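1st attempt posting a full record on here, be nice pls
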Amino acid sequence: MAGSLQYWPRRRAGRRLPRIRSVGSVKEVSLSNLLTYKVGMTTLSITDDSNSPAKGQEVSKACTVLELPVMEAYGIRLYSIDEATRYKKAHVDILNKAAAQKLGIKSVKNDESKIPSGEKLEGITDVALLIAADPKTTGTNTNHHERFEAEITGKDIKEKLAFATSKLGKELRANEIFKNGEFVDVVSTSKGKGWQGPIKRFGVSRMFHKATGKIRHVGTLGAFTPGKVMYTVPMAGQMGFNYRTEHNKLRSKLGTKEETATINPKSGFKNYGLVKNDYVIIEGSVPGPAKRIVRIKKSVENRNSRGINEAKVNFIKG
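the predicted structure (as tokens):
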């Protein structure tokens, strides 16, 4: 919303890879998030299973296609609580030698033989997987690996560590983590629009041409007191390229690389090309342009606890 103080300060994102601050309280032991690339938008025809007036009828909806690169878990990160600051800190990293060497990590201090068990688990509060995504087979024209961290959901530390150990050194697939009809949160970086004035940036009105010497500027910078310009005054500055999280986006379809012919146009998607790997179709729009990194994660509000209804997909515009 233009002028909203919900998003402040309006500064550029620090990295192309969006951050994830919370994974919610999901009881199921699973991976919290995965990395995808935005392909573009298409049209999906489904049988409406909601409580709307169109229930049971065939409806067309705009949706976004996300492609999943080849992802491999190359390490486990254990967290503990720093008694001095009471903040969570990284306790130790345990790496898979074969997977780490592919990333150019030459020295591995802790390998699978150092995975703790029994009494050694005392003090460990959280477990996360270290994942490397290889985008070479996607349409992003990117050659370097994207390395990110994905926390393990659940309550019991032993179960979370056992899950992480089972995935270490293996390829990760979306159908092992998510389900069709599941609500997910989408974390991405919005389109960057550069330096913009207050009219485009905040939606304020243009000044009357005889009122002042300027038209596209703010009429007043605030009251006489306090004698300073408040941060709430619309001013020119950076617009776009911000971290944004959208909650409860409906996952309409999980597709495999064998099914890409059903969604690929003959000439490929605009500014992206052809989808070659596993893909995800999410109802509605997703922040950012084509080829932008989009992270999908478990719903923080735990919307899926009410049940997962898989809608019948009748047609995908390809």
